[in-house]
């Protein structure tokens, strides 16, 4: 209980600092963005993969899409860069991976590798 | 949870600096309740934005979703129902995942009007909902006045569009089943932009596959208002030639102006009338009626201009429009996948503004549209889009995207996986 309150207090102070800082942030390069905003941007970037690979990379069971959330960062980045360079063939990913910078692909690989590997819920 | 939120907001409000107040300007509930976003319409855009507002805010933003239908019915894959390869139940998904897994409040009714100043929506059930932000995702409505006689012909059940999946999909399927072998099915396509650019060509293809299988003396006629096949043109035309030969005929520059339900005939602006056994006429489309009534359709009184960083209307503050209703950016199709992509950019921007964070200056979108060319093979078009600050719009990232080399079974499997994952991403 005491720990929970402490966490809340820390969050409160953190949120206040973030809010004051955020309004003045230049928000241009990733270097100047505060961590809470950066996390939101990364989640939104990762959401551009969810159409085929499931929310947060947890693909629906039994489909042809690879579940990203169970892969290592190195494996994911290696595949993405190989699709991007054309070293590895694909039906769609060679075309999509070329829409992202290498920095964005690194960000995506790190994000999905950090997700828990449970299965996506089947909508139907 | 409620307590924590209140303390954070009130704690900030008393710091009193101009900076903090500016950061909270988008939130009408400072010192009071949790921020509340109202989402109108639970299609591809609306369902997604409701879920992602909850996800991106870690539950700190409340979401109410208004939708009159009991369940979601997918337009993508619905052509397979027409072709007799899927049941309507295969493409119907309940909304309860949004409620159970994500805490979205759903109300099964319609929004009849919105007071943008008071931030209050009136509902058809007599109630109202107050909100801090509203996201409107009404899809498309039909411009019935553009094709004489079409509205009445549809109301009689004679000439259907089936461009919103559901009972009308089944009604058109029954017309195809009742058509004798040797008959003609004609699909009439409006000028761009319309919902789902490759959809009519996929429909023609899978209906041709059905005829080839069960009514081999029948014919498919595509009557297109556009001067060319508007999506995946080379791939479709090659597939038609190789798979269907003279069974399928494509005619460009056929802009429908009237129909005669008694004679099952369509009249064109320039070309001769065409009679068919099953006539499937897609009317020209515009933004959903609600946004037109709200005065948000400021692009030719037909679509809604938005600020592409947040999908906020350029007419009304605090009102966001996503999906098929918007005036699209270059290279951006009106598709379910794209509506889902709009929703995520809008959700991230709204959460940022409600929580006092800077809005992402460089959002990204993807689009993948897959189409069947027969029962077992599919093709795709894919693209990645980035926001360009100098032009204040999205553009296709140079060098990204493209189309299939050829139809394949692998792409049909990819299409199936796409559908199952994106339905889950929206609704589960």
Attribute tags:
heterodimer, A: 124 residues, mainly alpha, 6 helices, globular, disordered N terminus, B: 428 residues, alpha/beta, 5-stranded parallel beta sheet, 4-stranded parallel beta sheet, 12 helices, 25 strands, 31% helix, 25% strand
Structure explained in plain terms:
The complex is a heterodimer of chains A (124) and B (428). With 124 residues, chain A is mostly helical. Chain A has 6 helices and no strands. The longest helix of chain A has 23 residues, at 2-24. The N and C termini of chain A lie far apart (40 Å). Chain B is an alpha/beta fold. In chain B, strands 5-2-1-9-21 form a 5-stranded parallel sheet, with helices on one face. A 4-stranded parallel sheet of chain B has the order 13-12-11-17. In chain B, helix 3 runs parallel beside helix 11 (336-354) and helix 8 (199-214) runs parallel beside helix 9. The longest helix of chain B has 19 residues, at 336-354. Classes of the chains: A mainly alpha (124), B alpha/beta (428). At the A-B interface, helix 1, helix 2 and helix 3 of A face helix 1, helix 2, helix 3, helix 11 and strand 22 of B.
Number of strands of chain A: 0
* Low-confidence parts of chain A: 1-30
Radius of gyration of chain A: 18 Å
H/E series of chain A: HHHHHH
Instruction: Estimate what percentage of residues of chain B fall within beta strands.
Output: 15-25%
Q: Give the proportion of residues in helices of chain A.
A: 40-55%
Quaternary form: heterodimer
- The gross shape of chain B turns out to be globular
Give the count of helical stretches of chain A: 6
- Count of individual helical segments of chain B: 12
What's the number of extended β-strand segments of chain B? Answer: 25
């Amino acid at each position: 209980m005491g720990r929970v309150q402490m966490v809340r207090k820390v969050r409160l102070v953190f949120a206040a600092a973030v809010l004051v800082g955020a309004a003045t942030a230049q928000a241009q390069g990733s270097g100047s963005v505060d961590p809470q905003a950066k996390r939101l941007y990364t989640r939104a970037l990762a959401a551009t993969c969810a159409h085929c690979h499931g929310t947060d990379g947890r693909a629906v069971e039994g489909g042809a899409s690879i579940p990203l959330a169970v892969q290592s960062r190195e494996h994911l980045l290696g595949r993405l860069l190989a699709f991007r360079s054309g070293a590895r063939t694909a039906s769609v990913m060679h075309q999509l991976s070329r829409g992202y910078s290498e920095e964005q692909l690194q960000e995506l690989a790190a994000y999905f590798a950090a997700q828990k590997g449970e299965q996506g819920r089947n909508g139907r | 949870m409620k307590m924590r939120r209140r303390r954070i907001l009130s704690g900030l409000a008393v710091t009193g600096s101009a900076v903090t107040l500016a950061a909270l300007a988008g939130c009408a509930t400072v010192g009071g309740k949790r921020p509340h976003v109202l989402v109108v319409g639970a299609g591809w855009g609306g369902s997604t934005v409701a879920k992602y507002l909850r996800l991106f805010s870690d539950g700190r933003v409340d979401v109410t979703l208004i939708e009159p239908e009991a369940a979601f019915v997918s337009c993508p894959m619905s052509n397979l129902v027409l072709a007799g390869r899927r049941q309507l139940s295969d493409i119907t998904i309940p909304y309860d995942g949004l409620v159970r897994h994500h805490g979205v409040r759903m109300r099964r009714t319609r929004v009849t009007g919105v007071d943008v100043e008071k931030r209050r929506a009136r509902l058809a059930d007599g109630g109202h909902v107050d909100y801090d932000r509203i996201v409107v995702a009404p899809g498309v409505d039909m411009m019935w006045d553009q094709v004489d006689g079409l509205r009445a012909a549809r109301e009689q059940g004679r000439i259907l569009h089936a461009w919103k999946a559901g009972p009308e999909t089944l009604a058109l399927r029954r017309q195809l089943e009742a058509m004798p072998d040797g008959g003609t099915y004609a699909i009439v396509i409006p000028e761009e932009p319309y919902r789902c650019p490759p959809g009519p060509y996929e429909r023609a293809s899978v209906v041709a596959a059905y005829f080839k299988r069960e009514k081999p003396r029948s014919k498919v006629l595509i009557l297109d208002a556009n001067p060319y096949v508007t999506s995946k043109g080379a791939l479709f035309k090659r597939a038609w030639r190789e798979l269907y030969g003279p069974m399928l005929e494509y005619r460009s520059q056929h802009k429908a102006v009237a129909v005669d339900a008694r004679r099952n005939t369509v009249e064109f602006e320039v070309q001769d009338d065409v009679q068919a056994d099953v006539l499937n006429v897609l009317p020209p489309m515009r933004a959903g009626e609600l946004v037109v009534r709200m005065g948000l359709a400021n692009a030719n009184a037909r679509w809604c201009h938005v600020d592409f960083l947040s999908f906020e209307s350029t007419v009304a503050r605090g009102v966001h429009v996503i999906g098929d209703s918007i005036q699209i950016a270059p290279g951006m199709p009106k598709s379910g996948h794209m509506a889902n992509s709009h929703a995520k950019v809008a959700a991230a921007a709204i959460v940022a503004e409600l929580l006092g964070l800077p809005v992402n200056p460089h959002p990204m979108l993807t689009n993948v549209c897959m189409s069947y060319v027969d029962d077992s093979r599919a093709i795709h078009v894919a693209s990645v889009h980035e926001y360009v600050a100098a032009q204040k719009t999205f553009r296709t990232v140079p060098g990204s995207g493209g189309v299939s080399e050829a139809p394949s079974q692998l792409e049909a499997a990819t299409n199936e996986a796409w559908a199952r994952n994106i339905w889950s991403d929206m609704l589960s």
